[in-house]
Amino acid sequence: MSNQYQKWLTKENKLQHAVISWMGFNYPEALYTHVPNEGKRSRWEQYLIKYLGVKAGVPDLLVFDPNKEFNGLAIEFKIKYNKPTEKQKMWLDLLKTKKWSCHVVYNFDDAVAIIDKYFNDVL
After folding, report:
1. I need a surface site. Which of 44, 60, 92, 114 has the fewest CB within 10 A?
2. Torsion angles phi and psi, residue 51, rounded to 5
3. What is the pTM of this model?
4. Residue 18 to residue 92: CA distance in whole angstroms
5. What is the pLDDT along the chain (123 residues), one digit of tens a residue?
6. How far apart, in whole angstroms, are the C-alpha atoms of residue 120 and residue 90?
7. The pLDDT of residue 6
8. Do residues 45 and 72 lie in contact, with contact meaning Cβ atoms separated by under 8 Å?
9. Which helix (H) or strand (E) holds 61?
């Protein structure tokens, strides 16, 4: 990857990429995505993504495969002492009311454990 792009790869981005790479290898049939609603945007981009329905606070990783207990899995990635924003907490709480398994994850090992546990209960 070019050095010009390295400045955008935060520790949180790198954690998420590591988890997504691991997940793609271990659960290749899983249906998941990242909603790119972070970062600075021009006024036009801000208008456009709101116009198209992007919502602030949506968790970083959404897994759409149901298991025996949950309709989906949502993970918000954080690093060190970072905490979820109020909008992120709101989304996690709302998804819980829709029978989603919701987590805030601070490291790779915890993310892997949560994902493995979730997929061990797949229908």
Report:
1. 44
2. -60, -35
3. 0.87
4. 22
5. 555 566 667 888 899 999 999 999 999 999 999 987 766 778 888 788 789 888 889 999 999 999 999 999 999 999 988 999 999 999 999 999 999 999 999 999 999 999 999 999 754
6. 27
7. 61
8. no
9. strand 61-63
Backbone angles phi, psi at 34, to 5 degrees: -115, 135
Sheet holding 72-77, edge to edge: 32-33, 61-63, 72-77, 100-105
Please say whether the dihedral angle defined by the alpha carbons of residues 1, 114, 60 and 54, taken in this order, is positive or negative: positive
DSSP state of 63: E
pLDDT for res 123? 47
Query: Residue 21: helix, strand or coil by DSSP?
Result: helix
Q: Which residues, in sequence order, are bridge partners of residue 79?
A: none
The domains found in the chain, sorted by start residue, are 8-120 (3.40.1350.10)
Task: Tokens for 84, please give them.
Answer: 């979820």
Tokens of 3: 């050095």
